[in-house]
Write a structure and sequence with these properties.
Blueprint: H1 3-15, H2 18-26, E1 40-45, H3 65-76, E2 83-86, H4 88-96, E3 104-108, H5 130-136, E4 140-147, H6 153-170, E5 174-185, E6 188-191, H7 195-206, E7 215-220, H8 225-230, E8 236-239, H9 247-258, E9 263-268, H10 270-273, H11 280-290
């Protein structure tokens, strides 16, 4: 991943944009969602499309696209990493780089609730739609479902998510729903990470749409995960969350949650791509070891 790689990507985008669809059609697709270890490990790379560039104490960590792609490719090359979650721009770059063969690919759908805006809870579907996910040959679509009791825009966001669940199910594709109870604190949207809040949000997410046959929940690791996981019969993927300076403590929390048979894997982004010591391979291998 050098400046030459960027030049090749730009040349293809300018002179042969049709190569993206051709690469998607020719891509080797995974046979299932079980994962190399029996559980699914995905790298999340959809943060920038929502205007969120921060990783740990680096406010613009994800602003350098070539550096971000280099980190994603390094993660995808490690044994035990099954795929990636991203928006079209990122996934298409990875396609052109030949990094998605045999990988589980999840398209990020609603990125309209831009971080730090007055309309953040009004999370419009500005990314993938179910039809496009199916056309590209991806394995599913992911949606963020934040529930702010004080923001009326919550209702339209939940309605849009319910439609997306149904549309993905119509294509027999995973609907990955990431729910939170949220409130504004000093003007900024903050997710509530108590067990009670996560239980409540996961119950709402599980009930979206006219079928839950293809719905998986993406949930944060919080205290009393036993109660959280007891609240649903749907497959659960753990959310990696923010970069933690104490990686040992973070790994211990993940290990405890992974002990439950309800947990079918993890989706981690910044914690794997931007670890405190910048050693992507080591961060990925440590996580794979937990799986």
């Amino acid at each position: 991943m050098t400046g030459d790689s960027l030049a090749r990507l730009l040349e293809l985008r300018v002179r042969a944009p049709e190569r993206i669809a051709a690469a998607a059609a020719a891509r080797t697709r995974p046979s299932d969602l079980v994962g190399q270890t029996g559980r699914l490990l995905l790298v999340a790379a959809d943060h920038p499309a929502r205007g969120a560039m921060r990783a740990g104490d680096r406010p613009m960590a994800m602003a350098d696209r070539l550096d971000m792609l280099r980190r994603i490719v390094a993660a995808l090359e490690r044994p035990g990493v099954d795929g990636v979650l991203g928006t079209a721009d990122v996934l298409e770059d990875l396609l052109l780089l030949g990094a998605l063969d045999g990988k589980v690919v999840i398209g990020s759908m609603n990125r309209g609730g831009l971080a730090g805006t007055s309309f953040e809870i009004d999370d419009r579907f500005t990314g993938y739609r179910a039809e496009a996910v199916a056309r590209m040959g991806w394995q599913g679509g992911k949606m963020l479902a934040r529930i702010d009791p004080d923001d009326p825009a919550t209702a339209s966001t939940l309605e849009a998510c319910a439609h997306a669940v149904d549309e993905l199910a119509g294509h027999r594709l995973m609907a990955m729903v990431e729910p939170f109870i949220a409130h504004r604190v000093d003007g900024r949207v903050r997710n509530v990470l108590t067990p009670e809040a996560v239980i409540r949000s996961s119950a709402v997410a599980a009930g979206l749409g006219s079928t839950s046959a293809y719905t998986w929940l993406k949930l944060p690791v919080v205290d009393d995960m036993e109660s959280v996981l007891a609240a649903t019969t749907l497959p659960v993927l753990l959310l990696g969350g923010e970069v933690d300076a104490d990686q040992g403590q973070q790994l211990a929390q993940w290990r405890k949650a992974l002990a439950s048979p309800s947990v079918r894997g993890m989706v981690a982004g910044r914690t794997l791509l931007y670890p405190p010591d910048d050693d992507v391979a080591a961060a990925v291998d440590a996580t794979v070891g937990l799986m």
